[in-house]
Structures are given as structure tokens and as C-alpha cells.
Here is the input.
Amino acid sequence: MAFSISGENRPGRWLVTCDHATNRVPDDLGGTLGISDTDMARHIAYDVGAAGLARALGEALDSPVICSDFSRLVIDPNRGEDDPTLVMKLYDGTIIPANHYVDAAETERRLDTLYRPYHAAYARLAARQPDTVILAIHSFTPCLKGRAVRPWHVGVLYSHLDERLSKPLIARLQAEADLCIGDNEPYAGHLPGDAIDMHALQPGRHNTLIELRNDLIGTEAQQQAWAIRLAPILSEVLIGLPD
Here is the structure.
């Protein structure tokens, strides 16, 4: 299965998504990409802690959650089909041996078996009601190899094409005295053809992407605590927006 869904029949307006939920490598690829278990446990293979946070937020917001069920290193569901980083061969200093000789036919096979089924289910859930709001959950590593330490606790990412939800959310989170909030940090929040572009920007849905620093959500207790903290803030900001 390319994805998992929690709470499909919940009535909430949100659709919580987690594009990089797991480090699973499908059996037809041998269950491994040729890198170490240590590397497979890193942020290069999935967004550490993000799936648990997404599911906890779905419960708190009484809304459905969709999570991918394959490693981003197999094929990245948060990239457009023509993006050159769709199948990564090198990531944060680690060579991905199983991707070295991936050709167009193998990329197409991974698109058909994993990427496209995930996005088809995503699109179906997003269309379940006319006022769906997309809440994409990701996590980021505190420090990439050879780079400066990232100071943010939470990053809010968005496209300049639609800042309606994200800008008020940033302002509201910045009012939390104990948090360092990234405004389109640790990186810019829009790539043409990415998941938000496909499911929110093009159809005109309210949307935001939240990145939590992954050392803050490594345990179930931390994920639950952040969901309890973020859910009322998200609801408050959404209520204040025009339709």
C-alpha cells in the first residue's frame, strides 16, 4: 500500500497530510536502498516524528489524515513528476546506491505503484467537501552536515501565490514567547508541482505547511503535546480568515 488514512469520516474541515511519513522501502526493491540502518533512521529517508504529529493533529482537529507509506528516497511525493530531485541519488552526504542506475522506466514504475496512488487518495480526500483546508506536516533536522545550526522550533512554509492562512499563523505563533518561528524557514515553501501546489494552490484551497524541528517530536509524548498546543492555534487562525 502506498499510503495510510486515519479518520477518513471525521467531519473537520482540515485535511492533515504527511508526505514523508515513513522510511519503508517496498519489498520489490528488496526492502533496502543499500544504505545503513543509521542513515535510514535519519531525516534523509523520512521526516522523523512527522507521522505521529500528523495523526495526533488529525485527532485534535477531528479531521482526516493521509500519510505516505514509502521512503522519500524511493520516490519523493512532495516533488513534481518532472522534478530532478524526484529520485535522489545523493542526500546530505549519503550516496543512495539503489538509485544510482534508476532510469526513466524504473522511475515510471515507482510513480505508478507509489507516487500516483498516494496523490489519487490525497485528491479524493481533499475533494470530500468544498472548503477543505490542507495542513501539511513535515519535520526538519536541527543541522545539515557542514551547515549552521537551525534555531527555529517551528517553520511555517507557504507560496507567495497564497499567504492567506500562513501569514496570520506565523503572526500568531510569534506571539508565543518561548518559540522561535521560521517564516519560510528553514527553506522556501513552494516548488512548482509539489504536493501543496497540486492539491491546494491549483484548486484554490486554504493551505499551510508546518515544519517541526525533529528533535522536538521524537517521542509519542512530544508529538501529542505539540498537537495539543498547535490545534487550537490553527483553529483560531482559520476562524479569523475570510472564506
Notes: The beta strands are 3-6, 14-18, 65-68, 90-91, 94-95, 133-140, 154-157, 181-183, 207-213. The helical segments are 37-40, 50-60, 104-126, 166-174, 195-201, 220-239. The first strand starts at residue 3 and ends at 6. DSSP finds six helices and nine strands in the chain.
